[in-house]
């Protein structure tokens, strides 16, 4: 199905026929289909909404760089358009950023009631760079300035463009120019200060081998959020829900159903 919200045409789907509603917010650069197994886990009890955020998969991207606040505002309008009054929010990675922002707002600042939150290998905590990371960033900026000197770039344009295309994470490299700007804006927004303001009952599910959003992030969220409990899936990475689907399902259903 398709819907236009704030001028952005996006795709979404609805599964299940339960009286309660759950909405799945995706990780950066993923397609909503990646979360079909989560929807299937609870579709007997919930009507489950999956969708592609603006700029993700086949949905229309923003016309200017968006950060977490802009994505959250758009999602609020998406919920209004679908006339959803109350919902459980389930967020993976970047979807967790949006949920942290929304969950920390006062109830009169959002158009729907939040029932419960499920954060899966969620992003949102920005840590101080290590000395090694700072040196790596400094080297990158030095090389970038040097390679883009007019004379250097004129003679070695193809080589410079290849080098530039190899920089950054896989998510960054695979993003469009506009979504690269959105990603930079979003990932540099540290939401740690908002965690204590989230009053909702929250289930944190984490892979102990997650390198994108380390387990330490999950532990800090549990410590800082008033009503959060952390569940660790051993031997899993940033996609813990795919690596151990049965254990994930048991945790999710125990929390929601």
TrEMBL record:
Molecular function, one GO term: hydrolase activity
InterPro entries in the cross-refs: AB_hydrolase_1, AB_hydrolase_fold, AB_hydrolase_sf
Keywords: Hydrolase
Pfam families according to UniProt: Abhydrolase_1
Keyword Hydrolase belongs to the record: yes
Residues covered by the AB hydrolase-1 domain: 23-245
Taxonomy, superkingdom: Bacteria
Keyword Hydrolase carried by entry: yes
A single cellular component GO annotation: membrane
Protein name: Alpha/beta hydrolase
Provenance organism: Candidatus Weimeria bifida
């Amino acid at each position: 199905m398709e819907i236009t919200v704030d001028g952005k045409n996006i795709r979404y789907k609805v599964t299940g026929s339960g009286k309660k509603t759950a909405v799945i917010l995706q990780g950066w650069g993923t397609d909503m289909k990646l979360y079909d197994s989560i929807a299937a886990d609870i579709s007997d009890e919930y009507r489950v909404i999956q969708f592609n955020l603006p700029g993700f998969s086949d949905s229309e991207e923003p016309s200017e760089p968006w950060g977490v606040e802009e994505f959250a505002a758009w999602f609020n309008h998406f919920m209004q358009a679908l006339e959803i009054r109350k919902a459980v929010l389930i967020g993976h990675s970047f979807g967790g950023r949006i949920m942290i922002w929304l969950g920390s707002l006062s109830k009169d600042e959002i158009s729907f009631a939040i029932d419960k939150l499920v954060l899966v290998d969620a992003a949102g905590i920005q840590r101080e760079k290590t000395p090694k990371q700072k040196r790596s960033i400094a080297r990158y900026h030095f090389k970038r300035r040097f390679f883009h000197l007019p004379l250097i770039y004129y003679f070695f344009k193809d080589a410079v463009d290849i080098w530039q295309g190899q920089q950054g994470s896989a998510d960054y490299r695979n993003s469009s120019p506009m979504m690269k700007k959105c990603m930079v804006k979003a990932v540099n927004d540290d939401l740690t200060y908002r965690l204590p303001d989230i009053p909702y009952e929250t289930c944190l599910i984490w892979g102990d081998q997650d390198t994108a959003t380390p387990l330490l992030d999950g532990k800090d969220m549990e410590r800082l959020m008033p009503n959060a409990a952390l569940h660790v899936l051993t031997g899993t990475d940033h996609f813990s829900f795919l690596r151990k689907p049965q254990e994930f399902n048991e945790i999710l259903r125990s929390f929601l159903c």
